[in-house]
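Severity: low
Component: inverse-folding endpoint
Summary: output formatting inconsistent between runs
Steps to reproduce: submit the following structure tokens with default settings.
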């Protein structure tokens, strides 16, 4: 009898003709997460198995892998002979403390001349006869005994751990996350990764108006997202000259609107260079002046690439709760200002006119400034390893 880790697919099982593509990517992502473990991963259309001598440590690691609906400790019995299966199940149960149980059987092996319900009743009766002080509870058992009679073996499992669900990272292409140091954008990134989109991130710094601490804060947030994304490419754009030109030449109520239009333009160009198919940001409808529907329309006008806003209909308390769940909240609230919080006007326009945006942008040489910002930007590869202060410069 072999002890294994059993992976259940959940939503992936609905993919029908494309399921092999998703399962292959899930296996690759699991092996990436476990690259420092000695493991073997096998799978079929119904289940994936991880063979390892360190199941507890492996489970702790793969809890952060998207595409996994459920994780179980399982035992493979190399036979479907019912009497042997009953003995082995009882052996496993003798190591557990419980008073109520339920048996659920699945009969993939149709050569067994009985039904799944009869198999469950037969095994349940055997357990009651050979282990004292137990009773069956079909509604709320302390332990659920799952037995799957397969073609050449029998799979038994009890313990259950919830996975993250979603799709394996990389199955739905690449996106570019507009990552600030705030609460919202890391959560938006997490939700995008969950849908199978591998992300890169872009951060706009404005030294000396923004600090090194603000930059390191964003790198720390990128590292937390890399835990789910396998790794993460971070683009760091110096936005100082553009921001100062906007501040000096453009009416202050339009500062945020024009600044966001410039950020979108730069992000769209870098996304195209990196073969990213969409932009992602943490905007939530009505949360701030630049996130009214009119503002979003005026800002979105400058790009043709799709822009998704996973948090568009979330309220702030829901976003904070999710930020705490993924461990980005405490980093996000560190008091270091980013580009979006400096030079904020007292009365930013909430219904900007596109025509005025066009007029005001003629006051600055923004195309030349954008070209220079893109040409000189940094690209760093971020890994999820803790205390990793060394980053690989890619450009």
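Observed output (run 2 of 3):
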């Amino acid at each position: 009898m072999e002890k294994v880790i059993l992976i259940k697919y959940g939503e992936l099982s609905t993919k029908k003709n494309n399921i092999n593509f998703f399962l292959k990517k899930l296996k690759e992502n699991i092996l990436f997460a476990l690259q420092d473990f000695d493991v073997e991963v096998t799978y079929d259309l119904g289940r994936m198995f991880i063979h390892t001598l360190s199941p507890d440590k492996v489970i702790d690691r793969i809890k952060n892998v998207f595409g996994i609906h459920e994780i179980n400790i399982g035992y493979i019995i190399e036979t479907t002979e019912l009497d042997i299966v009953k003995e082995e199940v009882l052996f496993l149960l003798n190591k557990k403390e419980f008073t109520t149980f339920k048996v659920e059987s699945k009969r993939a092996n149709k050569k067994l001349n009985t039904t799944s319900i009869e198999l469950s009743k037969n095994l349940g009766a055997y357990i009651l006869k050979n282990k004292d002080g137990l009773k069956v509870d079909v509604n709320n058992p302390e332990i659920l005994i799952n037995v799957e009679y397969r073609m050449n073996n029998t799979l038994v499992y009890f313990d259950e751990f919830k996975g993250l669900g979603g799709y394996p990272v990389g199955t739905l292409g690449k996106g570019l996350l507009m990552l600030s140091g705030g609460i919202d954008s890391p959560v938006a990134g997490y939700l995008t990764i969950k849908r199978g989109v591998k992300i890169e991130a872009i951060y706009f710094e404005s030294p000396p108006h923004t600090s090194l601490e603000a930059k390191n804060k964003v790198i720390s947030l990128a590292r937390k997202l890399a835990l789910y994304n396998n790794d993460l490419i971070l683009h760091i754009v110096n936005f100082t000259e553009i921001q100062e030109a906007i501040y000096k030449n453009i009416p202050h109520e339009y500062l945020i609107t024009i600044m966001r239009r410039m950020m979108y333009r730069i992000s769209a160009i870098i996304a195209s260079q990196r073969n990213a198919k969409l932009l992602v940001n943490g905007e939530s409808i009505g949360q701030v002046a630049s996130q009214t529907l009119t503002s979003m329309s005026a800002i979105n006008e400058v790009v043709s690439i799709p822009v998704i806003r996973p948090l568009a209909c979330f309220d702030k308390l829901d976003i904070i709760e999710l930020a705490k769940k993924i461990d980005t909240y405490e980093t996000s609230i560190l008091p270091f200002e980013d580009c979006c919080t400096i030079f904020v006007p007292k009365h930013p326009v909430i219904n900007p006119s596109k025509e005025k945006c066009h007029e005001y942008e003629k006051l600055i040489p923004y195309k030349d400034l954008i070209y220079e910002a893109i040409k000189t930007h940094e690209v760093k590869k971020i890994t999820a390893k803790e205390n990793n202060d060394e980053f690989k410069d890619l450009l």
